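Suppose a colleague, Dr. K., hands you the sequence of a protein chain of 315 amino acids and asks what its three-dimensional shape might be. Before reaching for any lab equipment, you can write down a predicted structure in token form. Begin with the sequence itself:
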Amino acid sequence: MKMKPTRDGYGEGLLELGRTNPKVLVLDADLSKSTRTDWFQKEFPERFFDIGISEQDMLGTAAGLALAGKIPFVTTYGVFVAGRAWDQIRTTIAYGQLNVKIAGAHGGISVGADGATHQALEEIALMRVLPHMTLVVPCDSIQTKKATVALASFHGPAYLRFAREATPVFTDENDPFEIGNAITLKNGTDLTIIACGPIVYEALKAAESLNEMGIFPRVINMHTVKPLDEEAVIKAALETGAIVTAEEHQVFGGLGGAVAEVLVQNCPVPVEMVGIKDTFGESGTPEELAEKYGLTARHIVEAAKKVLKRKPSRT
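The predicted structure, expressed as tokens, is then:
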């Protein structure tokens, strides 16, 4: 299995946009090597702006550029941009429905040794609650590149989340991608696993293990958390009767919460949520952290078994 950081997909997407769309500009907060925006800087220096460690200024500058007809991609670590500049994102960009694309790197606990201060575990909730905000969490480097390119043609404020560490590349260049349309990766009738980000691969591994036990889950890649593909969620609930959500984020306010909100209003079924359980992270290897905080295929299997016990029997 090929391994590649999703942030590489972001850098590749920016290069493609730089070559095809002269309106695209890139802003960074002194983290260009880490976020891969230095690739864009080298080829298009006149369209790259390092604002420094000044996230609020960076978002304000991006707002002005958007009002001038440009398409700014604002880039830094997710915990910094969503936390330090939330007021600018809310009041200037989201309220004004400005065409600013916000890229949050270091999403999730798999950041590893950088520790709790750099592990973005809350920004899906912070961005999801904002009116007019689109929120995309791609599963691998290929899908991250597709999402980056797609967002340039998608008018309005948007947040793109991607990770630091190398993760499995399991999608194909020719696979379809459309913002707002979930992708069913595996069909099944016993339950549905809905995941976003690199943990989607763990969901597929969990499905293989469940198959060996005679349990056949559906696996959905919910790469767009907002607008959520409600039709896919309701269809899965009606056809499989039980849901497991999986995300590298706090269980409060993230993908699990979004799915539960749809289900409770349309088709209530048992739901189990795999994610960070109301705690901050710590330093460690990505593998150690995933195991400790319950984000591996094994934990998804356990959640599937648990939700099946709660699933009403059909008569």
